[in-house]
Amino acid sequence: MPPIKFLVAAVVIIGMLCWGTGCTTGGTGHEQTVLKVLPAGSLLQPFEEVEKAFEAEHPDVDVQVEGHGSIQVIRQVTDLHRPVDVVAVADASLIPDLMFRTDPATGTNFTDSYTPFARNAMVIAYTNKSRYANEITSENWGAVLSRPDVRVGISNPMLDAAGYRSIMVTLLADRYYANSTLFTDLIGRHFTPPLVAEDVDGVATVRLPEVLHPSDEKLVIRDGSIFVLSHLEAGGIDYAFEYRSVAEGHDLRWIDLPPAIDLSSQNPAEGYGKVKVVLGFQRFSAIGQDRIGQPIVYAVTIPNTAPNRDLASEFADLVVKESESGGKGWPATLGG
Question: How far are the Cα atoms of 188, 195, 235, 334 from residue 171, in angstroms, in the given order?
């Protein structure tokens, strides 16, 4: 498998080269229809297989896949007004929150429907090179990550669902483990100013500034979870808050967390709603402020401005079908 950073760079560069309504590709000498697909970064690996299968069925279609954090994916449509055919995010709630609203340019909503298709769990990912790799367990992971010489990575919570879910995991851990201070030890005190968890009507609430300023080298932030992985594989960090499907797909080691913490359970009794992250966006009208803890669910939608709606619908249907069959790097099926 090629290194992640080269894989992502190739995907983005290819997408930028032919981001018009159509372009000549593949040396065929004729113009192909370009289908623009923007998935969350954690879907890049499985979407490569969907892309191959779709292009095999539609030789006159060039599927261009460009991964971003889930919030950034939606912003390409709602704030940057790019002509996108398919949007797939790692947090289904982002679609109604951010896209069921009027597009000033068209007078209609950015989208009116979406299809949930998969679920996932947050884990602690690491490699054989990670400090204390032979010591860490599902019982002592918090103590290991809290050691001064251990570096931890998360994605940017202002851009990526895995980022604000990393904060939620530590907040839930503080509720789950007696006298725990994991949010403060792993995340809160490593920013300037420090991030603080406040109790607001029984909900542990963290308010983020619009720009996050890490205060030391303990905590490393990258724009998306896929970029956190490249740093992990290179040895720049020891552990990362990641999705289980991503850890599996990239042959990493990982620590499973209790269902009360990992955001995987569909059981409302787990109390995920007792934690909340308030995003600090002020400049972009399409960004929802409050992200409330809930089970991880992926979803796909077709923007109302999609240039190729019929092809986009076929691609979205294939995503759902392929997710049900499973495979390396796919999140778990909703019914599985």
Answer: 10, 12, 27, 25
Mean pLDDT of the chain: 90
Of 83, 75, 78, 80, give the one whose Cα is nearest residue 21: 83
CATH class of 122-278: alpha beta
- 259 versus 31: the higher-pLDDT residue is 259
Q: What was the pLDDT predicted at 327?
A: 87
CA 290, 333, 40, 319 dihedral sign is negative
User: Please, which residues have CB within 8 angstroms of residue 287's CB and are 6 or more apart in sequence?
Assistant: 71, 75, 79, 98, 279, 281
State the amino acid at position 144 in one-letter form. Answer: V
Q: Tokens 């994991």, residue?
A: 182
Query: Over 70: is that where the pLDDT of 222 sits?
Result: yes
4-119+298-333: which CATH architecture?
Answer: 3-Layer(aba) Sandwich (3.40)
The rounded distance, in Å, linking the Cα atoms of 25 and 212 is 40
Q: Between 27 and 336, where is the model more confident? A: 336
What are the structural domain ranges in the chain? 4-119+298-333, 122-278
Beta strands in the chain (DSSP E): 22-24, 31-39, 61-65, 86-89, 115-119, 122-126, 152-155, 197-200, 203-207, 219-222, 239-243, 253-256, 275-278, 290-292, 297-301, 332-333
Per-residue model confidence (pLDDT) at position 94: 96
In whole angstroms, how far apart are CA 24 and each of 19, 56, 80, 210, 242?
11, 17, 25, 41, 37
- Residue 197 forms beta bridges with which residues? 206
Q: 272-326, pLDDT tens digit by residue? A: 999 999 998 655 444 557 999 999 999 999 999 999 999 999 999 999 999 998 8
What angle, 0 to 180 degrees and rounded to 10, lies between the N-to-C axes of helices 161-176 and 225-233?
80
Residue 246 falls in which region: left (phi positive, over 0), alpha (psi -120 to 50) or beta: alpha
In this structure, what token pair is assigned to residue 211? 């720009």
pLDDT higher than 50, residue 138 = yes
